[in-house]
What does this fold into?
Amino acid sequence: MTTPPSERTLIYAEDLRPEDVRALETFLNVQLGRVYEEVGETGETSFAMRSLLILVCDSATLLYTLLAVERPQMWQRAAIVWEWQRLRSTAHEFNHCEGYDHDRWWNQVGHFDASDETAEQDRIRGFVDVGPYPETGH
It folds into this structure.
C-alpha cells in the first residue's frame, strides 16, 4: 500500500484541482480493480463491475472538463459539487472494507464557493421566516 500524498483541505468545490480528481479516480480504479480481480471476468457481477468502472471514468472526465471552465455557470458549479460528491461517496465505502486502503479521507464539499453557501443559507432563512408557500388568504 502506498502512502497517500498530504492533502490540503477542501472546503469548496472551487478548491478542487485536476490532481484531486486524478488521485480520487486512481484510488477508485485500484480498489475496484481489486474487487474485479476477485469477481472474475464472467457473470453478472463482472458486468456490474465493468459498468461501475465506466461510471467512475465518466464522472472523472466530466469533472476534468468542468474544472477547465474559466467562469463556470451555475449549472456547471452545481455539477462540479455533484460529481465530486458522487466519486467521494463511492470511495468512502472502501474506507471500511477489510483488506482495502483504510483511513483515506476525501473531503466533502457542499457548495461551489462561499457565495453559493451564503445564498443557500439566505434561502433557508427565507423559508424559516415566511415558509415555502406564499400566503393565499385562506
Notes: Residues 130 and 136 are 12 Å apart (CA to CA). DSSP finds four helices and no strands in the chain.
